[in-house]
Amino acid sequence: xxxxxxxxxxxxxxxxxxxxxxxxxxxxxxxxxxxxxxxxxxxxxxxxxxxxxxxxxxxxxxxxxxxxxxxxxxxxxxxxxxxxxxxxxxxxxxxxxxxxxxxxxxxxxxxxxxxxxxxxxxxxxxxxxxxxxxxxxxxxxxxxxxxxxxxxx
Length: 153
What we know:
By secondary structure, the protein is an all-alpha fold. It is built from four helices and no strands.
């Protein structure tokens, strides 16, 4: 059985989802910054070690490789962070659309019953159009939708 939630509960859950996602993204970002900083410090230390003690070339090279490897790891962290952020935004947009749909349906239910069929049809048209690739809503498209509604009734 699907639990029905009120609009306020949905908004609260949406806000909670957004806040959780934001806090996770902040942690991910700062971990990436720390990894970049550590890699850079290791590279600088390897250069310092080589300049002050040229006979320790093996240690300097090893530290340089470790620093460069750390930078690659940090780059991977940033890449994953950006992908997760894009995914979070996509999910959040879908949740907003779901909230809009629920709100529209609840508003229709409060209207005069003789308008229900027309309003439900309008909601269905909007739902169909918003899942299409992004198109500009031109006057011609609006007229075509009106004509299709008139022919359908």
